[in-house]
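Table S2 (text version). Query chain:
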Amino acid sequence: MDVADLKVGQRWTGNMHHEDGAQFEFSKAGPELRLFFSGLPDEAVREFDSAPCEIGLLHSEDVAVVPWKIGEHLMGDAQFHAFLYPPETRPSDPVLNVDQRMRLRIVLVDRASGVVRGMRSVLLSPSLSNQLAEAVSRQLGNHIGREAYDAQVAIYQNKYPDVRDAIRAAEIFETAEG
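Corresponding structure-token output:
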């Protein structure tokens, strides 16, 4: 699903979590964070649009984890391994340029209705951009299967059952611009 074509109020047609949570994808189009929550109060949606957005990176074996926090109502993490993406969507060298600051696209979807409630774009620091590019480059050179990925995610989730612990353990966690 190309988020660039989406608008607030439209129906989300991509894959959706079966429970509240987040999905991080780093494709050829760059990094994207998708947030799926049911029953979001309007205050949380307003906060999504304007509150500071904090993003980080944590490694757990081969899996990379993006802990995030937007204002006081929205917080979570999303695990990913770029090698598991279909080959045609995996990022390539131009997107992984370590000398370029990355723009992270964030989409907020009401899981119950499937409607996009918010969209924003934030600029990551040079340091976080470089660390994400390095993590993805490592992953693309490290072939991993779904079973191994799921096992590593389970280890991560057991080690950090509360996202606040993951935020504290992150190698980097900072406020993005925008």
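Notes on Table S2: The beta strands are 21-27, 30-37, 53-60, 63-70, 74-80, 103-110, 115-123, 172-175. Residues 3-175 form one domain.
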